[in-house]
Amino acid sequence: MKDYSNHAPTRADARDVKITDVETCVVKGNFEWNLVRVHTDAGVTGIGESYRGGKVTDIMEYMKRFLIGENPLDVERLFRRMVQETSGHGGTTGKSVTAASGIEIALWDVAGKLLDVPVYQLLGGKYRDEVRIYADCHAGDALVVDDGYHEQGSREAYSPEAYAAEAERVKNMGFTALKFDLDIDSYDNVPDPYNGRISNEALEHKRQVVEAVREAIGYEIDLAFDIHWDYSLDSAKRVARALEPYDLMWLEDVIPPENLDAQREVARSTSTPLAAGENRFRVHEFKELLYDFGVDIITPDPTTCGGLAESKAIANRAEENYIVFSPHNVCGPIGTMACVHLGACIANFGVLEYHALDVDWWDDLVVRDAPLIQDGYIEVPEKPGLGVELDEEVAKEHLHDPGTMFG
């Protein structure tokens, strides 16, 4: 087994730093936000976030046993060590990589603070001063998320008029790019909830929804829709073709993610741009999507797929194929700001997802004088590290399990 422990310890005294502890907690927002803090003997701490879901923090706590004593500045080596040390537990993919992603982000935060530079500088430098945000929206009361699964609202909540009204509301908040979910159980599961085939009624309803939103916001606003892997190959093609007249920014996750040949078949059948990638891990799992042109836009989740360096490697491969990189992001502000640094340093970056419109305390979770998102953009921080710090008092008010704050 490869040994990614420290075999090159020689460095200047100022950079001879050791990890002393790794702590975790889970904040309950519209999703479970898995937070991690890395402590060092230099008195500097870093914070990171991993994708939502149960037991991710348990894996982070497991990783602590071989991270303590390591130098936090060796970020990419330590990511490989985390993957290698958990490889016997399925650590080359899945939740082990997700856990490593959050720690990797915290290590970049530590490194930036120790070296007195923003994370984007460590990742290669800046292309842009602001990162454009798209708002993930829901029509009416159409979605309730609870404990990792979702319940859709009544059929009335999915009227084209409800979608259009929400689109206008969010446009007026200053966003210039929006996304809605377009998979709707009460329509799509008729007459059969399992086979993924769409009825004429459901297809026409989707078309009417997209048409209503376009009429409400015009064509100067970028518009995307997500259909969450629900459809058979023939139905995915039908949906994509039906939406061609509306000049979408993209249609996301059109078929189940396992079969990349089928994904490519849909891409070949339509002029509607397709996006996918949020449930893939590490650069290796993106190879066929990118080099076989199964997507027009690639959407990895940096807090899932391996952290910031791995995401940048994916973006570099996408750039070889002239494919835009637009990260999936359902994080709190910590993970979101990590993605902002990533967006700053990637040439082929498009837009970053924001998925917390209904969390009115989202901004309060970090120490901040003004909202992070202003007129649909987030300014790239110039402070060392990620440039934001957790407001622990606010975090304590929203812990998933009360009394489980850091320390």
Automatic annotation (TrEMBL):
PANTHER family xref list: D-GALACTONATE DEHYDRATASE, D-GALACTONATE DEHYDRATASE-RELATED
Organism: Natronosalvus hydrolyticus
Protein's UniProt keywords contain NAD: no
The organism's place on the tree of life at top rank: Archaea
Annotated signal peptide: none
Keyword Acetylation tagged: no
Keywords: Lyase
InterPro entries assigned: DgoD-like (IPR034593), Enolase-like_C_sf (IPR036849), Enolase-like_N (IPR029017), Enolase_C-like (IPR029065), Mandelate_racemase_C (IPR013342), Mandelate_racemase_N_dom (IPR013341)
Protein name: Mandelate racemase/muconate lactonizing enzyme family protein
